[in-house]
Each structure stands twice: as C-alpha cells, then as structure tokens.
C-alpha cells in the first residue's frame, strides 16, 4: 500500500538549488512547504513528494541506479501523478531526479531479467514502462533535468510540458545500443517537439544531445547552471501557477487537441502502434544487446558505463565523440 508521509522540512537539495538559481521571479516560502515521500513501510522511498501550497514536487529517488525506473518505482510514480492530478490545490507539478541525474531509463537489471525470460510485460504496462508516460495530463508539469536524461528517462522528460536542463546534462536514446525499443510514447512526443527529420536522427543514431543543441532544436526550454535545475524548474512552475488556472488549462488543452501527436485519438493510436509492433525477433535482439551491455558494464573499471563498449570503439563513433567534444568547446 502506497502512503504519503508528511513533514514540514524543505529538503536540503531543493533549498540549495533554490539558493543557487538566484532567480528574482519567485522566492519559495520555506514556511509553506509540506514534504512527503511515497514509500513502502521500512524501505527507502523511490519516489519523493514535496508540496508547497501551489506546487507539487515529485522526485525520482534511486540515485545509486542513476534514477533508473524498475517496475515498483513505475507503479509508485504513476500513483503519485494520479494524486497530483486529483489535487485541485496544486495546479502545477515539478518532476526531477535526486542525486545528480534525472533518469537513466528503465532499470537494466530488471530489463535483463525480463529479456532473458522473453517477456514483454514491462512494455505492456497500461500507463507505461516508465510509469505514467501514456497518460494525458490535464495539468502542466515542469521537468528539472540534470546529469543523464536518457532512454526511457528522455521519454519521461518528454511526458512533461516544459523542460529545464542543466548545461552539463546529456540527453539521448541510448537504448539504441542495446536493441531496446521505445515504448513510452517517445517516438510520438519527440517528433512533436523537434520535428520529424531531427527526431529520426536522434532515434536512429542513439547519439548524445547536449544542452546547447537541445535548446536550439526545442528539446529543452531553458538551459541553467549545473546544480540549479530543480530551483529554476520550481521558479518556472510558480510563474505558471500565479495565473488563473481555468483559462490556462483551456488554452493548453486547445493546443494539445489541435496537435495530431497529442490529441487523444491520435496519441492513443500512435502509442498503440509503438507497443504492438514489437516482435519476438526484437525481444531476441534485446536479450543479446542487454546481456552484452551488462557484461561490459560489469567488466568496466570506474569509467562512465555509457561509454564502455564490448569491444573497441568503432571509427565512426570515435569521430562522433570528437565532433561532440569540439562542439562543447565552442
């Protein structure tokens, strides 16, 4: 049974992030914050909930796993989102990752187990393998992005209305390297955000997308300094919450209804195609890819596991890394 545990202390991470953001647009009242966590008895919560009188902050809390999402966390995240949607006192939410990364996608250990079983259960969860990603939200959520926002983590970020990205954060569909298909409406929302051609490039190459490019192509709305994404996301959320909500929700829904990728019938059909076109041959390919990746990750020293390869890095990827490093210096 999921419980919401309430106290009255603002988390150190939020407090520090708000101090570092130094935004004059809105100062968060420390006396008006309720802090809660979604947890099971006796366990460290994998989803945190912190609530101001107007803003609900939802934190993915698996920092040792780079906030990757396992089945239990996906269920908790979905329930927290449902509670936020039902709370008429909180018109805007903020979604973020605890401990330096937004989310590295679906939990690889659990994915490996599922793949070896030949199971598609994680793909077929009603609201999404990452939690609530196949839902239609009636309220805006602002996403605060730090560190890795990759694979299913990027699909989860695209689920939000707006994205605030730290200048050192990285996005990308790294699942391409393991043969894991998109299953959380990533193919639908990415094309709506950046356009068909750029979406194809990002999906097919599985390459890294850094902050400057993400802003240029519309994948993020703002770039902020490292360590300030949460505070700046909260400030942006407050700048939305200060307005009368009925007209705002009307205009937001009208925009979504007029966009083929987001109107309910079109969205549901596209998500259905994304899931149901997964074949048994793809499951076999995923089994092999995840096994190779997990093996290389275990063998690797303390290097960044996303750069570790089973064999030597191919020439084309060396060239890609060199270009990206050059672009970062510009």
UniProtKB/TrEMBL annotation:
Gene symbol of the encoding locus: LOC115621815
Family per similarity comment: Belongs to the enoyl-CoA hydratase/isomerase family.
Protein name: Uncharacterized protein LOC115621815
InterPro entries: ClpP/crotonase-like_dom_sf (IPR029045), Enoyl-CoA_hydra/iso (IPR001753)
Organism encoding this protein: Drosophila lebanonensis (Fruit fly)
Chain segments annotated as transmembrane: none
Pfam families noted in UniProt: ECH_1
């Amino acid at each position: 049974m999921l419980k919401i545990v309430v106290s009255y202390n603002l988390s150190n991470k939020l407090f520090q992030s708000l101090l570092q953001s130094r935004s004059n647009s809105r100062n968060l009242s420390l006396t008006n914050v309720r802090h809660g966590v979604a947890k099971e008895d006796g366990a460290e919560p994998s989803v945190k909930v912190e609530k101001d009188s107007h803003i609900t902050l939802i934190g993915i809390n698996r920092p040792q796993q780079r906030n990757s999402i396992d089945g239990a966390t996906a269920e908790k995240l979905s329930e927290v989102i449902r509670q936020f949607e039902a709370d008429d006192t909180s018109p805007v939410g903020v979604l973020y990752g605890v401990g330096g990364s937004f989310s590295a996608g679906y939990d690889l250990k659990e994915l490996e187990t599922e793949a070896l079983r030949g199971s598609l259960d994680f793909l077929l969860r009603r609201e999404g393998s990452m939690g609530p990603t196949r839902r239609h939200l009636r309220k805006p959520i602002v996403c605060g992005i730090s560190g890795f926002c990759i694979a299913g983590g990027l699909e989860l970020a695209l689920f939000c209305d707006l994205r605030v990205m730290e200048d050192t954060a990285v996005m990308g569909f790294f699942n391409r390297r393991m043969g894991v298909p998109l299953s959380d409406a990533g193919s639908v929302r990415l094309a709506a955000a950046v356009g068909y051609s750029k979406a194809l490039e990002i999906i097919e190459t599985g390459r890294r997308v850094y902050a400057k490019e993400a802003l240029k192509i519309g994948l993020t709305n703002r770039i902020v300094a490292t360590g300030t994404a949460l505070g700046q996301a909260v400030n942006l959320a407050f700048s939305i919450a200060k307005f009368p909500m009925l007209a705002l929700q009307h205009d937001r829904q009208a925009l979504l209804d007029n966009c083929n990728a987001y109107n309910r019938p079109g969205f549901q059909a596209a998500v259905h195609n994304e899931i149901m076109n997964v074949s048994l041959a793809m499951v076999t390919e995923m089994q092999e890819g995840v096994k190779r990746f997990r093996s290389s990750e275990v063998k690797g020293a303390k290097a960044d596991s996303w750069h570790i390869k089973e064999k030597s890095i191919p020439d084309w990827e060396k060239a890609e890394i060199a270009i990206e490093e050059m672009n970062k210096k510009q």
